[in-house]
Amino acid sequence: MTYILAIDQGTTSTRSIIFDENMNIVTTDQVEFEQHFPKSGWVEHNPNDLWETTLKTCQTVMNVLGQNMNKIEAVGITNQRETVIVWDKNTGQPIYNAIVWQDRRTADVCEKMRLAGNEKIITDRTGLLLDPYFSSTKLKWILDNIEGARKRAENGELLFGTVDCFLIWKLTNGEIHATDATNAARTMLYDIHKGRWSKTICDLLEIPIKMLPEVKDCAANFGKTHTNLFKRRIPICGVAGDQQAATIGQACFKPGMMKSTYGTGCFALLNTGETPVTSKNKLLTTIAYQFDGKPTYALEGSIFIAGAVVQWLRDGLKIINEASETQELSEKADNEQNVIIVPAFVGLGAPYWNAECRGAVFGLTRNTGAPEMAKAALESVGFQTRDLLESMSADWQISGVSPTLRVDGGMCTSDWTMQFLSDIINAPVDRPEIIETTALGVAWLAGMHIGVYPNLDEFASKWTKEKEFKPSMDEESRNSKYLAWKRAVKSTLEV
């Protein structure tokens, strides 16, 4: 039996999963780590926490295999994408905490760049909007605010990377400084049309290009793990940002296919094929995956808060102890109440892109309690997804394409949430047999690269759904609910 190790380094936890030669999950381990919120709108991680939880979960799943751990033939890595880490080239030690994709501290930098007329060149080259969500302004902030950082970077003493890049560096003991095209495409420094770092944008942000990693295909040679870690050197052969990895794991390889992943945030990707599509509705143009130097493009809509709204119910309001309790509570909610939560805790993503607005709750009554709040939290995910899908439909249409949405991530295990999603978007929602599609995506990349797993077409043919949710809500209710949501968002944006 041959095995593949998939590392899934996420926003709130790190997971390691072992897949067998038939792409079945053998064992998994997951460890949460501390979130740091130094100021309002700031979100940070300790990079050493990311590394240590990665190492711990890898060792745990390997130990389950026992002697068979020697049959792990390759490693795949998927990761939270836009999060920024800067570290010392010689010691491997970070010079500051990782600034997380959710962090909004550079909103003023983005606004100054916008007023200076820089937005068009950035969107034209990167496919992204000028927003603090992306890596480049976070990197600029570190260089501007950490004493001596800019000079050290100019001297070639510091390296920049997204989380995948940092983990590759640590796993290879500093031998490899590289990322893949999907992660590079999220930095707001990478020209997705020319397939290289943009010197123009780097100069604009005063970022030394020598800090940046080599960019490779998603399935490629990213070095080997150091002997000191796992007693043998295991090749790292698959890398993709978490949402692109989920797109791969969902086998969305044909133009028009869509997936939506529900983790901390929610991210919907629509495969547009070999041609990048420029959005007129504030969606992102990005790279879905890249093989043999040829990118396949996608439209992406990013929702900052999805599963995180359930964490807020648990950790902030303390009305639940476990995420699974939300379904039972929602079923008990008073249907005569129309409570709406707009979870703009760190601003709103697509299609609004407002970094400054904050969360709000509408429709509270004297009888509002935990059931109504839980229901409103879950419904907010459906409403935000509909916002994304309507924008995608307006940007790009192709005849004969099924509107079915493939879903994955932790929240999709909730039947109640998925049924509401199907109802509010008025389209079928398919949940796959393997919901760990993010990890599956990079496991397949790594396994395919070494010849253990099937090629793209055969992999796609093996995709199977566990359950299909079909819309059952009447049109009047659907329209009424969605209009109420739009009014709530409008009010939130105006505060």
Mean pLDDT: 92
**Main sheet makeup:** 7 strands, mixed
The name CATH uses for the topology of the domain at 3-242 is Nucleotidyltransferase, domain 5
Helix content: 25-40%
The CATH architecture classification of the domain at 3-242 is 2-Layer Sandwich
Strand order of the largest sheet: 16-17-15-14-20-21-22
Task: Please give the CATH class of the domain at 3-242.
Answer: Alpha Beta
User: What coarse outline follows from CA principal-axis ratios?
Assistant: globular
Specify the number of helices.
17
Main structural class: alpha/beta
CATH superfamily of the domain at 3-242: ATPase, nucleotide binding domain
Report the strand count: 22
Poorly predicted runs:
none
User: How big a fraction of the residues is strand?
Assistant: 15-25%
Oligomerization state: single chain
For the termini, the CA-CA separation is 59 Å
As a whole number of angstroms, the C-alpha radius of gyration is 22 Å
List keywords for this structure.
7-stranded mixed sheet, 5-stranded mixed sheet, globular
What features would you describe in this structure?
With 495 residues, this protein is of the alpha/beta class. The chain has a domain at 3-242: 2-Layer Sandwich (Nucleotidyltransferase, domain 5). The protein is 36% helix and 22% strand. The chain has 17 helices and 22 strands. A seven-stranded mixed beta sheet has the order 16-17-15-14-20-21-22. A five-stranded mixed beta sheet has the order 3-2-1-5-13, sandwiched between helices. A two-stranded antiparallel ribbon has the order 4-7. A hairpin with a 2-residue loop joins strand 16 (284-291) and strand 17. Helix 12 (325-332) crosses helix 13 (370-395) and helix 13 (370-395) packs across helix 14 (415-425). The longest helix has 26 residues, at 370-395. The mean pLDDT is 92.
